[in-house]
């Protein structure tokens, strides 16, 4: 297994109840607190974090003229539906 490139250490303050749960999970899994943090952050990034990034990209696309008018899209869908029904 290859070594992953790691960042410089970071410092953060957590509510004590959150830290307590992280430490409990780390102990149960026989892993480090860092391992638990990385798993939690990856989960966040895969869900809510990904959505935030995608929404920001969509806004940039619209600002750059890459969007479509909703009325045009609805008209196109209506035409497809009517064609399929015929």
Sequence-ordered SSE layout with sheet pairings:
Layout: H1 16-29, H2 33-63, H3 70-85
Helix pairs in contact: 1-2
Description:
- This is CopG family transcriptional regulator.
- InterPro entries: Ribbon_hlx_hlx.
- The chain has one domain.
- By secondary structure, the chain is an all-alpha fold.
- It starts with 15 loop residues before the first helix and ends with a helix.
- Helix 1 packs across helix 2.
- The mean pLDDT is 92.
- It is built from three helices and no strands.
Overall pLDDT level: 92
The global form is elongated
End-to-end separation in angstroms reads 58 Å
How many DSSP E strands? 0
Number of distinct helices: 3
Task: Spell the H/E element sequence.
Answer: HHH
Question: Which structural category fits the helices and strands?
Answer: mainly alpha
In this structure, how is the largest beta sheet organized? none
Strand content: under 5%
The radius of gyration is: 23 Å
| Fraction of helical residues | over 70%
* Unreliable segments of 5+ consecutive residues: none
Domain count: 1
Organism: Rhizobium altiplani
InterPro entries: Ribbon_hlx_hlx
Protein name: CopG family transcriptional regulator
């Amino acid at each position: 297994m290859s070594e992953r490139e790691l960042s410089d250490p970071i410092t953060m303050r957590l509510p004590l109840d959150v830290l307590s749960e992280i430490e409990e999970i780390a102990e149960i899994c026989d892993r480090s607190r860092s391992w638990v943090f990385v798993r939690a952050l990856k989960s966040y990034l895969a869900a809510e974090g990904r959505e935030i990034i995608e929404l920001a990209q969509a806004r940039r696309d619209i600002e750059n003229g890459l969007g479509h008018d909703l009325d045009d899209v609805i008209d196109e869908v209506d035409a497809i539906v009517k064609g399929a029904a015929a």
